[in-house]
């Protein structure tokens, strides 16, 4: 396995992605771990990340000395190159030119890292690489034993290598996709130079994770808040695989779930996996607290607080539980660690099953902490969860509470659930001929929204005066920005006619054609 030491760069997790794409297992740890930690980790290679600090002089972060003493290959990236330089006896100086963004570097000499890796076919650009740079300072003198590996006009030492010790460093960022050959370079480092086999896959991950969970919890009991979402479901399946009945899942139904959701979760976990699941039907309690509340933020706060209360009451009943398990995944860790820039204003206060308070007095068990979303999904499938469940669109913690505008009533929730289920069913059943994928797969998130306004319609010979639903379907890669999906008219037509015919109480369907920004994905 490969050890990645994190100096706080925004893109450290991308290094892990690229390494795992080469089928090599890796873990990210902070740069200030002890020498003993590095030795006992027994890495086959070490990668030193970049840093968020714009210049080298901003701080004095160093890698543990053991990194250079283990005899394993080391790759320094950006700040990682600076710290390697300084620790091994070279020099770094502030530069007048800040280099940021696209650059072309020229490879020098023959190094195993860059040999044969290039972007251009033409002889005059032979050995040139298109890369992404972001740095202020630069290396001005190589540490003893190193030779020049790459340069740009403004950065004469953009890469260096000591091949006898297998130490390499690059000023640019191979982990970002703008560096076209970055993946090839990282693969070369971990597979060819470090000799990692490239046999890492989910099956072996399950065995390792199961062993780790058993070792961590011993014979103690664990509770987990199961929401039916991907992360908590996969965490539950994994922990159940490890410790069986020592795990109790608590599934809180706040009355704002999708159609048949509670049934599906119970069938899957209690029925098929034979896990211990406590099903708490708290819908009356939630709807009672929400009655008459129309402000979106207040609704969110009430649902969040109520959820914690219900869960805590259930947790207290399980007097033997010593652990609280959560489906925290790697991007959550990075986000809450504050390495991402914080938004200045709260657009929406998020409520998650993951956000339970630590006042429960339980130890935290987070077996998915190192995984990315797509890896969590692959793990779920490998654990036997149905692909339909594992590849679902995200569903917000407050559920239909933020999809029923204004006052929430049971009657509205029931209408919305049925309309939403029809929309999702048709998206799943409609295949796009150009891609062969269903429209459910082609959209990132899709749902119906209940509008508490009435409009006039005509049905048979009679006049109707009923509610409206809006359909929302978006495409996005990060949910920060999103485009509305250009669904085929025939699909919209079918969904609309089915909803109006099958859901008595709704006589009009509209399609939301707003992008984010300036709209948001959810309506509240
Ligand atoms: P917006 O509406 O802000 O949504 O564009 C972005 C993404 O976040 C989801 N979302 C939530 N997820 N708890 C969650 O777990 C919440 O309170 C919450 N609010 C919004 C939303 O569904 C979309 O995927």
From TrEMBL:
Pathway recorded for this protein: Purine metabolism; GMP biosynthesis; GMP from XMP (L-Gln route): step 1/1
Cited Gene3D superfamilies: 3.30.300.10, 3.40.50.880, HUPs (3.40.50.620)
Record carries keyword ATP-binding: yes
CDD domains listed in its UniProt record: GATase1_GMP_Synthase, GMP_synthase_C
Record: residues binding ATP: 227-233
PROSITE patterns to which the protein is assigned, alphabetical: GATASE_TYPE_1, GMPS_ATP_PPASE
Active site: 78, 173, 175
InterPro entries, A to Z: Class_I_gatase-like (IPR029062), GATASE (IPR017926), GMP_synth_C (IPR001674), GMP_synth_GATase (IPR004739), GMP_synthase (IPR022955), GMPS_ATP_PPase_dom (IPR025777), NAD/GMP_synthase (IPR022310), Rossmann-like_a/b/a_fold (IPR014729)
Top-level taxon: Bacteria
Matching Pfam families: GATase (PF00117), GMP_synt_C (PF00958), NAD_synthase (PF02540)
Domain GMPS ATP-PPase: 200-392
PANTHER family attached to this UniProt entry: GMP SYNTHASE [GLUTAMINE-HYDROLYZING], GMP SYNTHASE-RELATED
The protein's role, per its UniProt record: Catalyzes the synthesis of GMP from XMP.
Summary of subunit composition and partner proteins: Homodimer.
Protein name: GMP synthase [glutamine-hydrolyzing]
Natural source organism: Pelomonas caseinilytica
